[in-house]
């Protein structure tokens, strides 16, 4: 039972926290391994908070589109759990946190080719192998149609970012995919990595992302309740890579980050926070996004452990 009352947001407070968060973003840096992500403005910023009463708070550039990158992973997992069931999916990937970075080959090798969890690259590539369709484009379309339908959002494939990903071959993701193939975890390596690259390049606004977050909080059908619970649990334990445990202790809400600078927190019974600010810290999480979510959650007593 919550012993501290949760508070509602007000826009003046949010503005103050946003200004403080933005001023910290120059402590981070843009990722360089995907050229398109290095070309964005480090000052770009947007946040949308949707609460369970239907209130919406938006600051920054509402029209800004950004690639989801790893923030697509909880929603790939949701699709898989709803469509294929937990037994099949947790035979393909584990549910253990990892102390290694998001793109670690060493972790996968140590685990015999069985990905630790669906929030790191190996896990998401292994799940991308289960999307239906002959190629990455078709598989990505299946996932985005499904999410757009259920989430009421408008995800679109960002071809510039996809071309950029393809222009700079990612040897770690390629090695992870090869390892998954040789260990028998996936059977079609080319389609799996192609699908993974496509879905990471789905673009969204903060409104789209907040709506996707609400899908995890307000499952549209009774059969989704358990999948949504499992996705939120994995966001909490694995969503911020090696920083997940620290964030759970210090902040305490299920959260997923992406290397584009996007962050999504979902707070059961309260609402969703979707934020975009590109400069990242050493673990690949948005500096401003982390700070802003921390301020909102602490100030309004929103930790799920309160
Ligand atoms: N597509 C990115 C990669 O594989 C996603 C990583 C991330 O967002 O953390 O490197």
From TrEMBL:
Catalytic function, reaction form: L-glutamine + H2O = L-glutamate + NH4(+)
Source species, domain of life: Bacteria
TM region positions: none
Alphabetical UniProt keywords: Acetylation, Hydrolase
EC number: 3.5.1.2
First-tier enzyme category under EC: hydrolase
UniProt keyword annotation of Hydrolase present: yes
Keyword set includes Acetylation: yes
Alphabetized Pfam families for the sequence: Glutaminase
Binding site for substrate: 70, 121, 173, 196, 241, 259
Family, as annotated: Belongs to the glutaminase family.
PANTHER family linked: GLUTAMINASE
Complex and partners: Homotetramer.
Protein name: Glutaminase
Organism field: Limnospira platensis NIES-46
Gene: glsA
